[in-house]
Amino acid sequence: MTKVIAINGSARKDGNTAILIRHMLEELENEGIETELVQLAGKTIRGCTACMKCFENRDRRCVFDDDIVNEYIEKMAAADGIILGSPVYFSDVTAEMKALVDRAGFVSFANDGLFTRKVGSAVVAQRRTGATHSLDTLYHFLFSQDIIIPGRPTVGVGREVGDVDTDDEGIAAAKNAGRNMAWVLKAVTAMSGTHSLK
Ligand SMILES: Cc1cc2nc3c(=O)[nH]c(=O)nc-3n(C[C@H](O)[C@H](O)[C@H](O)COP(=O)(O)O)c2cc1C
Prior knowledge:
Layout: E1 3-8, H1 16-30, E2 34-39, H2 53-57, H3 69-78, E3 81-87, H4 95-110, E4 119-126, H5 131-144, E5 154-157, H6 168-192
Parallel strand pairs: 1-2, 1-3, 3-4, 4-5
Bound molecules: flavin mononucleotide.
């Protein structure tokens, strides 16, 4: 079954970013696509140490096994679609999201591209400013991995948990992004008999 994994980089579990992501997932589920949301809140994730062991070992893992990164790399590699969501923290993604994509990205490169041609989307929640720069960070990762991005990203506006639910345009963007992702996933599957073109 076609599956999408969504990663919420917020330090706040079930906050505004999670709300936006869930609107996307609802649309995907309506199209018969399996979804899973994982949240980085409460998890300590170290950054990449540039040790290059992943290029020596080439075992689809980061050599540091004391946090959730390897588990999430596996989930991303097994999924057909990847949604990356983050609140804006000082005009960028959270430190945890950056640490995850840095390490997952290098492990992927060391293993001939674990995420190549998956379908991806980016979601951010902001109080007022910085969404563009944060999306840029997420897009740089998605593009670097040859992930296919179907259309517009999602930006929701809100400060306290639940505020984004009053941002009609943000919710509409999330639903639109979910539908676009489902469309591409279904089209690719119909064409190739499998999601994975690699
Ligand atoms: C450390 C920190 C930095 C923030 N920096 C920004 C910022 O630069 N621009 C902005 O619009 N909102 C900023 N915010 C507000 C959050 O992006 C906003 O509250 C968002 O809705 C939180 O989403 P969440 O509930 O998923 O965590 C910041 C919040 C925190 C905790």
